[in-house]
């Protein structure tokens, strides 16, 4: 099991550019989560999917952020246009089925994408 | 919305000391999860708690699910340098506390 795979590991871009972060969840996991981590705000839940369908996107900061999950093995988080305040580490996590409630399933995190917007 | 309050924010301890941290919520949860994050990596699950009053151990780690279902604590006994990191609690809605940053001095 390769775990949750995120790419790229690091991204440096200029303000106004489009940024796309990618995630491959663990095979067989029904839930996929996107988090953002900053010193000021900690780990924030941005959006999560169940069976490729977005369930709760209330954490998405604004319309510049969008996330898709076209199939069970791939998800993207896009920022367009990017701004310096978007600089953070973005984590993807997936969660297995087979528990009494998927809400309660522990998350498996990728190693994150460190985004720097200058 | 619900809010998780995790304390302390940071701890500086000597190797060999015991550590205690806790998490409280304004909402009732059916699950409490404790994670550890090492530098440059994503959080990794340490202990999962599924029942009020449950006390669970994993090596030197012990965690308890509060009887009110609104709190949980994590203890680390006989700390070692590799315990350094950020410890997070999470409730059943997958939102995380602010974390406790642990530093262990050899």
Q: Can you put this structure into words, describing what you see?
A:
The complex is a heterodimer of chains A (118) and B (106). With 118 residues, chain A is mostly beta strands. Chain A contains no helices and 11 strands. Chain A has strands spanning 5-7, 10-13, 19-24, 29-38, 42-50, 53-56, 65-71, 74-79, 88-96, 108-109, 113-117. In chain A, the strands form 2 sheets. In chain A, strands 2, 4, 5, 6, 9, 10 and 11 form a 7-stranded mixed beta sheet that branches. A 4-stranded antiparallel beta sheet of chain A has the order 1-3-8-7, with no helix packed on it. In chain A, a hairpin with a 2-residue loop joins strand 5 (42-50) and strand 6 (53-56). The radius of gyration of chain A is 14 Å and the shape is globular. The N and C termini of chain A lie far apart (36 Å). In chain A, 37% of the residues are buried. Chain B is mainly beta and 106 residues long. Helices cover 0% and strands 53% of the residues of chain B. Chain B has no helices and 10 strands. Chain B has strands spanning 4-7, 10-14, 19-25, 32-37, 44-49, 55-58, 61-65, 71-76, 85-91, 100-105. Chain B has a 5-stranded antiparallel beta sheet, with no helix packed on it. The termini of chain B are far apart. The mean pLDDT of chain B is 93. The A-B interface holds A 4, 33, 35, 42-43, 45, 48, 91, 93, 95, 101, 103-104, 106-112 and B 30-31, 33, 35, 40-45, 48, 50, 88, 90, 92-99.
Secondary structure layout plus pairing:
The complex is a heterodimer of chains A (118) and B (106).
Chain A: E1 5-7, E2 10-13, E3 19-24, E4 29-38, E5 42-50, E6 53-56, E7 65-71, E8 74-79, E9 88-96, E10 108-109, E11 113-117
Parallel strand pairs in A: 2-11
Antiparallel strand pairs in A: 1-3, 3-8, 4-5, 4-9, 5-6, 7-8, 9-10, 9-11
Chain B: E1 4-7, E2 10-14, E3 19-25, E4 32-37, E5 44-49, E6 55-58, E7 61-65, E8 71-76, E9 85-91, E10 100-105
Parallel strand pairs in B: 2-10
Antiparallel strand pairs in B: 1-3, 3-8, 4-5, 4-9, 6-7, 7-8, 9-10
């Amino acid at each position: 099991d390769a775990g949750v795979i995120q790419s790229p590991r690091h991204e440096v871009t200029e303000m106004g550019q489009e940024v796309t972060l990618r995630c491959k969840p663990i095979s067989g996991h029904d839930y996929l989560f996107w988090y953002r981590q900053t010193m000021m705000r900690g780990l924030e839940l941005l959006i999560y999917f169940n069976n490729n369908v977005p369930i709760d996107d209330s954490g998405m900061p604004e319309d510049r952020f969008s996330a898709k999950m076209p199939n069970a093995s791939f998800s993207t988080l896009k920022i367009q246009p990017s701004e310096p305040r978007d600089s953070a580490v973005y984590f993807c996590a997936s969660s297995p089925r087979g528990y009494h409630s998927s809400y309660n399933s522990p998350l498996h995190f990728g190693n994150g994408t460190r985004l720097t917007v200058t | 919305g619900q809010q998780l309050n995790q304390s302390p924010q940071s701890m500086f301890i000597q190797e060999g000391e015991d550590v205690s941290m806790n998490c409280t919520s304004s909402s009732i949860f059916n699950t409490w999860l404790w994670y550890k994050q090492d530098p440059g990596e994503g959080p990794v699950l340490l202990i999962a708690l599924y029942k009020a009053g449950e006390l669970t151990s994993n090596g030197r780690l012990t965690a308890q699910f509060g009887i009110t279902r609104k709190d949980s604590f994590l203890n680390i006994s006989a700390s070692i340098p590799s315990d350094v990191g950020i410890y997070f609690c999470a409730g059943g809605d997958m939102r995380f506390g602010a974390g406790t940053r642990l530093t262990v001095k050899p």
